[in-house]
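Ligand-bound model needed. zinc ion.
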Amino acid sequence: MKRLYIWMAALGVIGFLGTFLGLSLARKYRAESPELKRKLLILGIDGMDPQLLQRFMDQEKMPNFAALAARGSFLPLQTSIPPQSPVAWANLITGMNPGSHGIFDFIHRDPATLTPYFSTSQVKPAKHNLRLGSWIIPLSEEEVLLLRHGKAFWQYLDERGIPLTVFRLPSNFPPVSSRGKTFAGMGTPDLLGGYGTFSFHTDDLIFSPGPVNGGAIYPVQVAGDHIEAHLHGPVNTLRKENPELIIPFTVDRDPSEPVARFSIQDHQFILREHEWSPWIPLTFKFIPRLKGITGICRFYLKQVRPQFELYVTPINIDPSNPALPLSTPEKYARELSRELGYFYTQGIAEDTKALTSGLLTDDEYLVQARIVFEEQRRLFDHELARFRTGLFFFYFSSLDLNGHMFWRATDPKSPAFDPELAAKHGRVLEDYYREMDGILGEALRAADENTTVLVVSDHGFAPFRRSFNLNAWLVQNGYLVLRAGASPQGRDIFRDADWSRTRAYGLGLNGLYVNLRGREKNGIMNPGAEAEALQREIAERLLAVRDPNDQQQVVTRVDRAAEAYSGPDVSQAPDLIVGYNRGYRVGWDSVLGGVSANVMEDNTQPWSGDHCIDFTKVPGVVLSNYKIHAEHPALTDIAPTILHEFGIATPDTMKGRSIFDPSGQKADRGAPTPDHLEKSH
Ligand SMILES: [Zn+2]
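Prediction:
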C-alpha cells in the first residue's frame, strides 16, 4: 500500500514537471508564431437576411454595417440543405455537409422503431440500477450524447494552443471537449429534458389545465387572498413510478393593491402586476436529506385579480451548478454566473410558444425576448472586454426568433396581418437589426490592426403565409395510406398509417422518407430502382403542386439525399428534402407526423416568418473588414476560413476553402506562413 502511494507521488511530480515544461514551450511557441498574434472576431447572427440588411443599410439605419461593407465585403452566404439552424450551424462548425455531420433536421426518427427524436443530443439513462423498495439507485451515470459528428473548427485551434471563446453555437450540446472556453447553445435542454417547458398557474376556468404547446397550465388553490400552487420539476428517475418532483409555493395578494408576495423554498419576493422576478434558484431533491439538483426560473405576474395569472419560465439548468454539462472548461459556466449572475441556459430562450399559446401577449412576449437579448449583450460585452488574442465567436438569436414572430407586422399579405398590429409592432424587426448594428460597432471599436472581423448568418428569412401539409398531400395522392376507421381528427402516421400499403411519409420540417424495406420497421419499397423511381415520381409531382388560391408554385426544389449529401451518415438522411417556395412552409402538423384534414391552409399564427424552404431562396450573409475573394461563399467555407486565418491547412474532411483565398495564398494579408503556402486547391 505504502509503495503504491510513493509511486503515485512520483508520478504526480513527473506530471507536474511535464505540465511545467509544456507550459513554457507553449509560451515560447506563442511568442514566435505570427499567426498566434492574429485575432479573429466573429458575430454569428441567426437569421440575418441579406435583403433586409441591404434595405436597412440603404435607409441609413445601420451605419456600422454600411461602413464594414464599404471597407471590406458584404455577400450572400449559401446556406445548408435544408436551411434549418441546427443543420446550418453544423455545416459551419464542421465544414462538412449533413451526410458527414449527421444533422438533417430539427427532428429525426429511428427507422427501427419509428419514434421521432430531437436530432442534436440524447440523454441515455444509466445502464445499471439497483432496486431497493420503491427506489431505483443508478450504479452508473446517465450519459448525455452530442449526436453531431465531425470535428469542430475550434478543436483544430485548441490543438495548437490558440486561445478561443465560442459562445452559444447551436448543435453543440453537450459541448465537445476543448481546453478553450465554449458554451452550449441551441439544443441545450431545460431541466425537464425538452427544449423548454413553461408553466402557467391560474384559477381562471377559461384555461383548461394540462399540457399546451411548449408548456403546461396548472390550477391553483385560492382562499381569499392566499394562493397555493406547485412548480413541476423533472421526473424522479430514482423512484419506480418516476413521479414528478414538485415544489410547492404560496402567493399572498395585497388586499387592495395589484401586488403579491411569493414564497418558494427559502425565497421571498414581491411582484407588482406585470412585473418579472429575478432568476430564482430552486433545488429538486431526489432523495431526502441528500443534495438535490438545482434549476433557475423567473416568475411573471400577469394578473393579480379578479383571476390570478402567473407565467413561470422553463426551469433552466443552473449555470452556477449545472446538472448537465454546459461549458468547457466545466468551471466556465460557474465563473460566468459568479461574475454576471444567472442567465438563460436553455437553447432557444425566446418563449415563442407562450405567445403562440396565447398565454403571453405580443407586448409580454417582447419583454421576455428583450430579457434574453439583454442577457446575451451583457455576456458579449463581458467577453469582448477581455478578448486579447485568438478567436472570439459569439452567437445572437434575436433576429431569428423575433423574425419568426413579428414578420406578420410588416407583411400586409400575411393572413395574420392587421393594421393596428403593424402600427404598434411594425418596427420590432428593424429595431433588432439596429441593435445588431450597435453590437457590430462595439466589435469594430475593439478590433485592432491584427483583427479580422467576420459577420455570418446561417440563413435568411421569408414570409410564411400558407401551410402545406405534406402528409395530407401524400394521403391524397395515395403514397401514404391510413388504416380504415382512423378518426379524421388528430391523425398521425405513427398510430394511423397502414404500413403494408404506405410508400412514403413526411417527418421534420423538410424531410420525406420512403418506406424502405430493410431500413424502416415496416418497409415495403425495394431499395434500388423501385425506391428511386418512387423518389423521382414524388419529386416531380411535388414540383407541380399549385396553390388553389393564386396558382403559385408551392414547392420549387426537391433534393435527393443521394445527390445532395456525401459521407458516412447519408443513409440516415430523409430520402427527399422538400424545398418550399417563399411564402410557403410545411404545416406544423406534418412536422411531427400529423395528417391534417386539408392539404393547404392559411397560416394565421404569430409564427409568420420562416426559412425552412428552398435553400436557394434564403441565403444568409457574410461580411468582413477584409476583401472576400470567394464569389459564391457557402457556410461550409467558414470553418476553412477560420483555420486559414490561424495558418492551419484545410483538412481533407472539409470541402470548402477560405473565403479570403482566391488562389490558395493570402497574398494581400501580410507575410504568408508556411502553412499558407502548403495549401493549394
Ligand atoms: Zn429560425
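The first helix runs from residue 2 to 32.
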